[in-house]
Amino acid sequence: MKEPVDVLIIGAGASGAAVAWSLAETKMHILCLEQGGWMNPAEYPSTGRDWEAKFYGEWSSSPNVRGRPEDYPINDDNSPIKVVNYNAVGGSTVMYTAHWPRLHPSDFKVKTLDGVADDWPIDYDALTPFFEENDRMMGTSGLSGDPLSPLTHPPMPQQPLGLSGAIIAKAMNQLGWHWWPSDTTVATMDYEGRARCINLGHCTPACAQGAKASTDITYWPQAIRAGVELRTHCRVREITTDENGMASGVVYYDKDGIEQFQPAHVVVIACNGVGTPRLLLNSASGRFPNGLANSSGLVGKNLMFHPYAQIYGYVKEPTDSNRAPPTCLWSKQWYDTDLSRGFVRGYGVQFVRGAGPVFEAVVSEQKGTLPWGEDHHRVFRKLNGHRLGFSAICEDLPEEHNRVTLDPELKDSHGIPAPKVDYTISENSRKMMEHALARGREFLETAGASDICVNSPIPWGGWHLLGTARMGTDRERSVVNEWGRSHDVKNLFIVDGSIFVTSGGVNPTSTIQALALYIADQMKQRLANLFD
């Protein structure tokens, strides 16, 4: 039988890496199990000209399309938004766009301010030092001082505005609307062993240059040097408990498919807002018949996706096309509640710099914008390298009927039940999306765009997986407490996006990692009383 480890972390992505690095200074025996493996940047799509074609197959952001051995299938048939993620050391940070906003202070007090959803049990100020620490570790670029965003101090200067940025800024200025260079985790200068961005291609299908921060090249090297053990190609089936109802370890399948048991004194889950409820529900037992840590009945419920309302068009001037990162500006003009708009809460806006030629050809043919026949090449020249986009990240409010359960039939390659997603877009979110599309159309028309097209919601837009194991002080209304510890199982912690109470209107990765660092800090402060 294996010796028990002090802390066992499940998942080596954004939050798992951050918590491992932070806890490493305790000199405890820390082990992380990751179902994927180490990635080889020499094999990333951006090393070749066919990087866009690969994005439709083995480098798709959808596990259902990729179907790698490390992936697990997801039944999202009953959802207009499809789940996208990545399973590897670094997790979805290998594939994300590197857009780097934070939740706003108002996002933590939605019930107080707007009378909807619930307030978080912590506030923005509690996370501020961990946002700053995470920005240093991930290496952010940006311009401090945005009047409508939380104050940040990026260690690198902002991304160049480029051809697209200048067009976007001019149109926004004409309308009198807010815009600002967006924070990103793409290096604009050599930083901590990472080379600066040289625009190899779109950021999403992985960065061969290493300019984009992913935790396999930021947190993990430092955590491993500090003594953390990382075991790859290990798929956890369930978390076990002892006669006292405490987590005792995990059952997992190793790289050869052999079932193993790893005992542990403390278990930390970092498996995202779909993977975490799947694991908890698969860990049901006689003591926990409805799933582990689920006395509230909320494990898997309150799934929040962020419906994306996207509108784009084509300008006469050349845009940046493949230039990385794909978003270089944001707007918080419509972020907080204004009841005259007909809905509560709001949305952030990402401006899209352009698209590559393969993507442009495929999507424009599907939309009917690009014809076949003798006019094909003329129209393609008009579209290619001239796209300008406006994408609104609409806040999802928590609703219990939006949920993750276990599929009764679908299983992964190890026979573990797969997650099933049931999700509908709320009326509030639909009104928000309509408002965003109207503003986006105004923006595009002001920029002189034609051939305007809409994607609302973006169907393959389930990047943000939030809320399915929410935090709170009331154990009947939450799964973990204000520092990530399970109400039911005192040595079980959750550190990923599933603990979000509300979703805000921005990409969540920065906040997910700040939360993970905050929880690790709380664990270190409370170690003597961890099992009380």
Describe the structure.
Keywords: FAD, Flavoprotein, Oxidoreductase. Residues 398-516 form the Glucose-methanol-choline oxidoreductase C-terminal domain. Belongs to the GMC oxidoreductase family. This is GMC family oxidoreductase. This protein is α/β, with parallel strands linked by helices and 532 residues long. The chain has a single domain (5-41, 54-141, 148-529), classed as FAD/NAD(P)-binding domain (3-Layer(bba) Sandwich), CATH 3.50.50.60. 24% of the residues lie in helices and 18% in strands. The longest helix is centred in the last third of the chain and has 20 residues, at 427-446. It has helices at residues 14-23, 51-54, 63-66, 110-114, 124-138, 162-175, 219-225, 272-282, 357-367, 376-383, 427-446, 509-525; strands spanning 5-10, 30-33, 75-78, 180-181, 229-231, 235-241, 247-253, 259-269, 308-314, 327-331, 347-352, 387-394, 403-411, 417-422, 450-455, 492-494.
Short description:
The chain is of the alpha/beta class. The protein has helices at 14-23, 51-54, 63-66, 110-114, 124-138, 162-175, 219-225, 272-282, 357-367, 376-383, 427-446, 509-525, and strands at 5-10, 30-33, 75-78, 180-181, 229-231, 235-241, 247-253, 259-269, 308-314, 327-331, 347-352, 387-394, 403-411, 417-422, 450-455, 492-494.
